[in-house]
Protein backbone atom coordinates (compact mmCIF):
# COMPACT_ATOMS: atom_id res chain seq x y z
CA UNK A 1 0.00 0.00 0.00
CA UNK A 2 1.36 3.41 -0.90
CA UNK A 3 1.15 6.62 1.04
CA UNK A 4 0.03 8.66 -1.98
CA UNK A 5 -3.47 8.84 -0.59
CA UNK A 6 -2.12 10.42 2.55
CA UNK A 7 -0.09 12.90 0.50
CA UNK A 8 -3.23 13.98 -1.34
CA UNK A 9 -5.09 14.69 1.89
CA UNK A 10 -2.13 16.63 3.22
CA UNK A 11 -1.97 18.69 0.02
CA UNK A 12 -5.68 19.44 0.27
CA UNK A 13 -5.16 20.74 3.78
CA UNK A 14 -2.28 22.98 2.62
CA UNK A 15 -4.36 24.43 -0.21
CA UNK A 16 -7.16 25.25 2.24
CA UNK A 17 -4.74 27.20 4.50
CA UNK A 18 -5.44 24.68 7.24
CA UNK A 19 -2.06 23.02 7.48
CA UNK A 20 -0.59 22.98 10.96
CA UNK A 21 2.99 22.89 12.01
CA UNK A 22 4.70 22.78 15.35
CA UNK A 23 6.92 25.56 16.63
CA UNK A 24 9.97 24.81 18.66
CA UNK A 25 9.85 26.39 22.10
CA UNK A 26 13.28 26.80 23.61
CA UNK A 27 12.42 28.61 26.83
CA UNK A 28 10.02 28.06 29.72
CA UNK A 29 6.45 29.35 29.47
CA UNK A 30 6.11 33.07 30.09
CA UNK A 31 5.15 36.29 28.30
CA UNK A 32 8.57 36.37 26.60
CA UNK A 33 9.62 33.14 24.97
CA UNK A 34 12.11 31.85 22.48
CA UNK A 35 10.35 30.17 19.54
CA UNK A 36 12.13 28.78 16.50
CA UNK A 37 15.22 30.68 17.55
CA UNK A 38 13.42 34.03 17.84
CA UNK A 39 12.57 35.94 21.00
CA UNK A 40 8.98 37.01 21.00
CA UNK A 41 6.12 38.18 23.13
CA UNK A 42 3.51 35.43 23.31
CA UNK A 43 -0.25 35.67 23.76
CA UNK A 44 -1.18 32.05 23.25
CA UNK A 45 -0.38 30.12 26.40
CA UNK A 46 -2.98 28.62 28.73
CA UNK A 47 -0.69 29.34 31.67
CA UNK A 48 -3.22 31.97 32.78
CA UNK A 49 -1.84 32.62 36.24
CA UNK A 50 1.81 32.47 35.21
CA UNK A 51 2.59 29.46 37.41
CA UNK A 52 4.20 27.07 34.91
CA UNK A 53 7.65 28.53 35.58
CA UNK A 54 7.05 29.77 39.14
CA UNK A 55 9.99 29.24 41.54
CA UNK A 56 7.76 27.69 44.24
CA UNK A 57 6.45 25.10 41.78
CA UNK A 58 9.91 24.30 40.47
CA UNK A 59 11.13 23.87 44.03
CA UNK A 60 8.19 21.59 44.88
CA UNK A 61 8.79 19.54 41.75
CA UNK A 62 12.45 19.04 42.72
CA UNK A 63 11.42 18.12 46.26
CA UNK A 64 8.83 15.72 44.85
CA UNK A 65 11.48 14.03 42.73
CA UNK A 66 13.74 13.70 45.77
CA UNK A 67 10.93 12.12 47.80
CA UNK A 68 9.11 10.03 45.22
CA UNK A 69 11.55 9.56 42.35
CA UNK A 70 10.62 10.22 38.75
CA UNK A 71 8.22 7.67 37.29
CA UNK A 72 4.77 6.68 38.57
CA UNK A 73 5.89 3.10 37.98
CA UNK A 74 2.49 1.43 37.68
CA UNK A 75 -1.19 2.20 37.36
CA UNK A 76 -3.12 3.54 40.35
CA UNK A 77 -4.79 0.17 40.94
CA UNK A 78 -1.52 -1.75 40.93
CA UNK A 79 1.34 0.03 42.74
CA UNK A 80 1.30 3.52 41.29
CA UNK A 81 -1.01 5.40 43.68
CA UNK A 82 1.44 7.36 45.80
CA UNK A 83 0.81 9.46 48.88
CA UNK A 84 1.53 12.56 46.73
CA UNK A 85 -1.41 11.67 44.45
CA UNK A 86 -3.59 10.90 47.43
CA UNK A 87 -2.82 14.13 49.24
CA UNK A 88 -3.54 16.14 46.10
CA UNK A 89 -6.88 14.36 45.63
CA UNK A 90 -7.89 15.24 49.18
CA UNK A 91 -6.84 18.87 48.75
CA UNK A 92 -8.75 19.19 45.45
CA UNK A 93 -11.89 17.68 47.00
CA UNK A 94 -11.73 20.13 49.89
CA UNK A 95 -11.12 23.11 47.59
CA UNK A 96 -13.99 22.26 45.27
CA UNK A 97 -16.31 21.43 48.18
CA UNK A 98 -16.91 17.90 46.93
CA UNK A 99 -16.60 14.68 48.99
CA UNK A 100 -13.92 13.20 46.76
CA UNK A 101 -11.66 13.86 43.79
CA UNK A 102 -9.78 11.54 41.44
CA UNK A 103 -6.64 12.36 39.45
CA UNK A 104 -6.20 11.53 35.76
CA UNK A 105 -3.01 11.88 33.72
CA UNK A 106 -4.57 14.33 31.25
CA UNK A 107 -7.84 16.16 30.75
CA UNK A 108 -8.43 14.31 27.52
CA UNK A 109 -8.22 11.01 29.37
CA UNK A 110 -10.43 12.25 32.20
CA UNK A 111 -13.20 13.15 29.77
CA UNK A 112 -13.01 9.87 27.86
CA UNK A 113 -12.92 7.95 31.13
CA UNK A 114 -15.81 9.67 32.88
CA UNK A 115 -18.29 9.60 30.02
CA UNK A 116 -17.49 5.99 29.19
CA UNK A 117 -17.72 4.86 32.80
CA UNK A 118 -21.14 6.46 33.20
CA UNK A 119 -22.85 5.63 29.90
CA UNK A 120 -23.47 2.83 27.46
CA UNK A 121 -25.86 2.03 24.62
CA UNK A 122 -28.99 2.39 26.76
CA UNK A 123 -28.08 5.95 27.67
CA UNK A 124 -27.95 9.39 26.09
CA UNK A 125 -25.40 12.18 26.14
CA UNK A 126 -26.27 15.82 25.42
CA UNK A 127 -23.39 18.07 24.43
CA UNK A 128 -23.01 21.75 23.68
CA UNK A 129 -22.09 22.16 20.01
CA UNK A 130 -18.90 23.99 20.94
CA UNK A 131 -17.68 21.48 23.51
CA UNK A 132 -14.00 20.59 23.57
CA UNK A 133 -12.97 17.73 21.27
CA UNK A 134 -12.24 15.43 24.21
CA UNK A 135 -15.84 15.71 25.43
CA UNK A 136 -17.21 15.05 21.96
CA UNK A 137 -14.87 12.07 21.52
CA UNK A 138 -15.86 10.72 24.94
CA UNK A 139 -19.52 10.95 24.04
CA UNK A 140 -19.09 9.28 20.65
CA UNK A 141 -16.94 6.48 22.05
CA UNK A 142 -19.43 5.66 24.81
CA UNK A 143 -21.99 4.28 22.35
CA UNK A 144 -24.71 6.32 24.07
CA UNK A 145 -27.19 8.19 21.89
CA UNK A 146 -25.25 11.36 21.04
CA UNK A 147 -27.00 14.70 20.68
CA UNK A 148 -25.68 18.22 20.38
CA UNK A 149 -27.67 21.23 21.53
CA UNK A 150 -27.30 24.84 20.41
CA UNK A 151 -24.42 26.68 22.00
CA UNK A 152 -25.11 27.57 25.62
CA UNK A 153 -28.84 27.28 25.03
CA UNK A 154 -30.79 25.67 27.87
CA UNK A 155 -34.05 25.77 25.87
CA UNK A 156 -32.46 23.79 23.05
CA UNK A 157 -31.14 21.34 25.64
CA UNK A 158 -34.55 21.01 27.28
CA UNK A 159 -36.20 20.18 23.95
CA UNK A 160 -33.82 17.28 23.45
CA UNK A 161 -33.99 16.08 27.06
CA UNK A 162 -37.80 16.06 27.01
CA UNK A 163 -37.84 13.72 24.03
CA UNK A 164 -35.40 11.24 25.51
CA UNK A 165 -36.40 8.03 27.24
CA UNK A 166 -32.83 6.89 27.82
CA UNK A 167 -31.92 5.04 31.01
CA UNK A 168 -29.29 7.61 32.03
CA UNK A 169 -28.95 11.11 30.68
CA UNK A 170 -25.70 13.04 30.91
CA UNK A 171 -25.49 16.71 29.96
CA UNK A 172 -21.94 17.78 29.19
CA UNK A 173 -20.58 21.29 28.81
CA UNK A 174 -17.36 23.28 28.93
CA UNK A 175 -17.43 25.73 31.87
CA UNK A 176 -15.47 28.31 29.86
CA UNK A 177 -15.58 27.55 26.14
CA UNK A 178 -12.06 27.01 24.99
CA UNK A 179 -12.23 28.71 21.60
CA UNK A 180 -14.78 31.48 22.35
CA UNK A 181 -13.93 32.30 25.96
CA UNK A 182 -17.56 32.71 27.06
CA UNK A 183 -18.86 31.16 30.28
CA UNK A 184 -21.62 28.53 30.22
CA UNK A 185 -24.93 29.55 31.75
CA UNK A 186 -24.51 26.92 34.43
CA UNK A 187 -27.41 27.92 36.71
CA UNK A 188 -29.87 27.44 33.81
CA UNK A 189 -28.19 24.29 32.53
CA UNK A 190 -28.19 22.86 36.07
CA UNK A 191 -31.88 23.60 36.56
CA UNK A 192 -32.81 22.15 33.16
CA UNK A 193 -30.75 19.02 33.79
CA UNK A 194 -32.15 18.47 37.27
CA UNK A 195 -35.75 18.87 36.08
CA UNK A 196 -35.16 16.23 33.39
CA UNK A 197 -33.48 13.82 35.80
CA UNK A 198 -30.16 14.23 33.99
CA UNK A 199 -26.67 14.59 35.46
CA UNK A 200 -24.68 17.68 34.56
CA UNK A 201 -20.96 17.35 33.84
CA UNK A 202 -18.86 20.52 33.63
CA UNK A 203 -15.35 20.59 32.16
CA UNK A 204 -13.79 23.68 33.71
CA UNK A 205 -10.34 23.41 32.11
CA UNK A 206 -10.23 27.18 31.49
CA UNK A 207 -12.12 28.38 34.57
CA UNK A 208 -10.12 26.63 37.30
CA UNK A 209 -7.66 29.05 38.85
CA UNK A 210 -9.16 31.95 36.93
CA UNK A 211 -12.78 32.34 38.09
CA UNK A 212 -14.30 32.45 41.58
CA UNK A 213 -13.09 33.90 44.87
CA UNK A 214 -10.53 31.16 45.52
CA UNK A 215 -10.10 30.27 41.86
CA UNK A 216 -12.31 27.18 42.10
CA UNK A 217 -13.81 28.07 38.75
CA UNK A 218 -17.23 28.69 37.35
CA UNK A 219 -19.05 26.56 39.94
CA UNK A 220 -17.58 28.81 42.62
CA UNK A 221 -18.42 31.94 40.63
CA UNK A 222 -22.05 30.83 40.34
CA UNK A 223 -22.20 29.25 43.81
CA UNK A 224 -23.26 25.84 42.49
CA UNK A 225 -23.20 22.79 44.74
CA UNK A 226 -22.68 19.16 44.02
CA UNK A 227 -26.40 18.62 43.49
CA UNK A 228 -26.30 21.26 40.72
CA UNK A 229 -23.11 19.98 39.10
CA UNK A 230 -22.64 16.36 40.15
CA UNK A 231 -19.68 15.78 37.80
CA UNK A 232 -17.00 18.46 37.97
CA UNK A 233 -13.83 18.11 35.92
CA UNK A 234 -10.80 20.38 35.95
CA UNK A 235 -7.37 20.28 34.35
CA UNK A 236 -4.02 21.05 35.93
CA UNK A 237 -2.00 21.94 32.83
CA UNK A 238 -3.60 25.35 32.30
CA UNK A 239 -4.25 27.71 35.23
CA UNK A 240 -2.40 25.39 37.60
CA UNK A 241 0.74 25.41 35.49
CA UNK A 242 1.52 21.69 35.97
CA UNK A 243 -0.10 18.71 34.22
CA UNK A 244 -2.96 16.27 34.59
CA UNK A 245 -6.62 16.58 35.49
CA UNK A 246 -9.16 15.62 38.12
CA UNK A 247 -12.81 14.80 38.56
CA UNK A 248 -14.61 15.82 41.75
CA UNK A 249 -17.94 14.51 43.01
CA UNK A 250 -19.70 12.07 45.25
CA UNK A 251 -18.31 8.91 46.78
CA UNK A 252 -20.41 6.84 44.36
CA UNK A 253 -19.16 8.77 41.33
CA UNK A 254 -15.50 8.46 42.26
CA UNK A 255 -15.76 4.76 43.14
CA UNK A 256 -17.53 4.17 39.83
CA UNK A 257 -14.63 5.83 38.01
CA UNK A 258 -12.05 3.79 39.91
CA UNK A 259 -13.89 0.61 38.94
CA UNK A 260 -14.94 1.42 35.38
CA UNK A 261 -13.03 4.34 33.82
CA UNK A 262 -10.68 2.60 31.41
CA UNK A 263 -8.46 5.63 30.87
CA UNK A 264 -7.94 5.69 34.65
CA UNK A 265 -7.34 1.98 35.06
CA UNK A 266 -5.15 1.08 32.10
CA UNK A 267 -2.46 3.70 32.33
CA UNK A 268 0.53 4.55 34.46
CA UNK A 269 -0.12 7.12 37.15
CA UNK A 270 1.25 10.62 36.52
CA UNK A 271 4.71 11.18 37.99
CA UNK A 272 4.09 11.73 41.72
CA UNK A 273 6.38 14.79 41.67
CA UNK A 274 3.85 16.44 39.35
CA UNK A 275 1.17 15.88 41.99
CA UNK A 276 3.53 17.25 44.61
CA UNK A 277 4.19 20.39 42.53
CA UNK A 278 0.45 20.74 41.98
CA UNK A 279 -0.10 20.90 45.75
CA UNK A 280 2.23 23.92 45.78
CA UNK A 281 0.32 25.33 42.83
CA UNK A 282 -3.04 24.88 44.54
CA UNK A 283 -1.80 26.92 47.49
CA UNK A 284 -0.87 29.83 45.17
CA UNK A 285 -4.12 29.48 43.22
CA UNK A 286 -6.17 29.76 46.41
CA UNK A 287 -4.21 32.46 48.17
CA UNK A 288 -2.87 34.78 45.48
CA UNK A 289 -6.10 36.34 44.29
CA UNK A 290 -4.06 39.28 42.96
CA UNK A 291 -3.34 37.10 39.93
CA UNK A 292 -7.05 36.97 39.10
CA UNK A 293 -7.43 40.69 39.71
CA UNK A 294 -4.48 41.50 37.49
CA UNK A 295 -5.89 39.28 34.75
CA UNK A 296 -9.22 41.10 34.89
CA UNK A 297 -7.44 44.46 34.52
CA UNK A 298 -5.47 43.19 31.50
CA UNK A 299 -8.63 41.74 29.95
CA UNK A 300 -10.39 45.12 30.22
CA UNK A 301 -7.37 46.93 28.79
CA UNK A 302 -7.12 44.57 25.83
CA UNK A 303 -10.85 44.63 25.09
CA UNK A 304 -11.28 48.37 25.12
CA UNK A 305 -8.11 48.84 23.01
CA UNK A 306 -9.03 46.23 20.40
CA UNK A 307 -12.60 47.50 20.13
CA UNK A 308 -11.35 51.04 19.54
CA UNK A 309 -9.30 49.66 16.64
CA UNK A 310 -12.47 48.22 15.14
CA UNK A 311 -11.71 44.57 15.75
CA UNK A 312 -14.59 42.22 16.45
CA UNK A 313 -14.28 40.60 19.86
CA UNK A 314 -16.45 37.90 21.36
CA UNK A 315 -18.59 38.05 24.51
CA UNK A 316 -15.81 36.90 26.81
CA UNK A 317 -14.86 38.03 30.31
CA UNK A 318 -12.12 35.44 30.55
CA UNK A 319 -8.43 35.45 29.56
CA UNK A 320 -9.46 33.81 26.27
CA UNK A 321 -10.05 36.82 24.01
CA UNK A 322 -10.57 35.72 20.42
CA UNK A 323 -10.52 38.29 17.63
CA UNK A 324 -13.06 37.09 15.09
CA UNK A 325 -11.69 37.20 11.53
CA UNK A 326 -13.80 34.71 9.56
CA UNK A 327 -11.56 33.79 6.65
CA UNK A 328 -8.77 31.29 7.38
CA UNK A 329 -6.26 32.95 5.02
CA UNK A 330 -6.88 36.37 6.56
CA UNK A 331 -6.43 34.93 10.05
CA UNK A 332 -3.09 33.54 8.88
CA UNK A 333 -2.09 36.90 7.36
CA UNK A 334 -2.68 38.62 10.70
CA UNK A 335 -0.96 35.92 12.70
CA UNK A 336 2.07 36.07 10.37
CA UNK A 337 2.08 39.87 10.46
CA UNK A 338 2.15 39.77 14.24
CA UNK A 339 4.97 37.26 14.12
CA UNK A 340 7.06 39.53 11.91
CA UNK A 341 6.64 42.15 14.63
CA UNK A 342 7.85 39.73 17.30
CA UNK A 343 4.41 38.83 18.63
CA UNK A 344 2.98 35.38 18.85
CA UNK A 345 -0.80 34.83 18.66
CA UNK A 346 -2.22 31.64 17.22
CA UNK A 347 -4.65 31.59 14.37
CA UNK A 348 -7.41 29.08 15.07
CA UNK A 349 -8.97 27.58 11.96
CA UNK A 350 -11.33 24.75 11.05
CA UNK A 351 -11.74 22.00 12.04
CA UNK A 352 -10.98 23.34 15.52
CA UNK A 353 -13.68 25.99 14.97
CA UNK A 354 -16.61 25.98 12.50
CA UNK A 355 -15.88 27.00 8.88
CA UNK A 356 -15.95 30.78 8.38
CA UNK A 357 -15.13 31.52 12.00
CA UNK A 358 -11.35 31.54 11.90
CA UNK A 359 -9.92 33.77 14.55
CA UNK A 360 -6.87 34.98 16.37
CA UNK A 361 -7.01 33.45 19.80
CA UNK A 362 -5.40 35.91 22.17
CA UNK A 363 -4.86 34.57 25.66
CA UNK A 364 -3.72 36.71 28.55
CA UNK A 365 -1.72 35.75 31.59
CA UNK A 366 -1.35 37.41 34.98
CA UNK A 367 2.35 37.72 34.20
CA UNK A 368 1.77 39.97 31.16
CA UNK A 369 2.37 43.65 31.82
CA UNK A 370 0.14 46.51 30.66
CA UNK A 371 2.97 47.61 28.36
CA UNK A 372 3.00 44.18 26.74
CA UNK A 373 -0.73 44.34 26.08
CA UNK A 374 -0.19 47.79 24.58
CA UNK A 375 2.51 46.38 22.27
CA UNK A 376 0.00 43.84 20.99
CA UNK A 377 -2.58 46.57 20.42
CA UNK A 378 -0.05 48.74 18.55
CA UNK A 379 0.81 45.85 16.22
CA UNK A 380 -2.87 45.10 15.63
CA UNK A 381 -3.32 48.76 14.72
CA UNK A 382 -0.61 48.52 12.06
CA UNK A 383 -2.13 45.37 10.59
CA UNK A 384 -5.66 46.67 10.53
CA UNK A 385 -5.80 47.36 6.76
CA UNK A 386 -7.20 44.03 5.68
CA UNK A 387 -9.72 43.78 8.48
CA UNK A 388 -12.08 46.70 8.03
C1 LIG B 1 -7.26 21.52 27.30
C2 LIG B 1 -8.62 20.98 27.51
C3 LIG B 1 -8.82 19.64 27.81
C4 LIG B 1 -7.71 18.64 27.79
O1 LIG B 1 -6.91 18.74 28.91
P1 LIG B 1 -5.42 18.18 28.84
O2 LIG B 1 -5.02 18.04 30.25
O3 LIG B 1 -4.63 19.21 28.10
O4 LIG B 1 -5.49 16.87 28.12
C5 LIG B 1 -10.09 19.22 28.09
N1 LIG B 1 -11.14 20.08 28.04
C6 LIG B 1 -10.98 21.38 27.73
C7 LIG B 1 -12.17 22.27 27.69
C8 LIG B 1 -9.72 21.86 27.44
O5 LIG B 1 -9.56 23.13 27.10
Automatic annotation (TrEMBL):
Enzyme category, top tier: transferase
Biological processes per GO annotation: biotin biosynthetic process
EC number: 2.3.1.47
Keywords, ordered alphabetically: Biotin biosynthesis, Pyridoxal phosphate, Transferase
Keyword Transferase: yes
Annotated substrate binding sites: 20, 132, 352
Reaction equations catalysed: 6-carboxyhexanoyl-[ACP] + L-alanine + H(+) = (8S)-8-amino-7-oxononanoate + holo-[ACP] + CO2
Gene Ontology MF terms: 8-amino-7-oxononanoate synthase activity; pyridoxal phosphate binding
Chain segments annotated as coiled-coil in the UniProt record: none
Pfam family, one: Aminotran_1_2
Domain of life per record: Bacteria
Chain residues that bind pyridoxal 5'-phosphate: 107-108, 178, 206, 235
Subunit structure: Homodimer.
Cofactors, names only: pyridoxal 5'-phosphate
Positions where N6-(pyridoxal phosphate)lysine occurs in the chain: 238
Protein family (similarity comment): Belongs to the class-II pyridoxal-phosphate-dependent aminotransferase family. BioF subfamily.
Species per Swiss-Prot/TrEMBL record: Marinobacterium lutimaris
Domain Aminotransferase class I/classII large stretches: 39-380
Pathway: Cofactor biosynthesis; biotin biosynthesis
Protein name, per record: 8-amino-7-oxononanoate synthase
Chain's role: Catalyzes the decarboxylative condensation of pimeloyl-[acyl-carrier protein] and L-alanine to produce 8-amino-7-oxononanoate (AON), [acyl-carrier protein], and carbon dioxide.
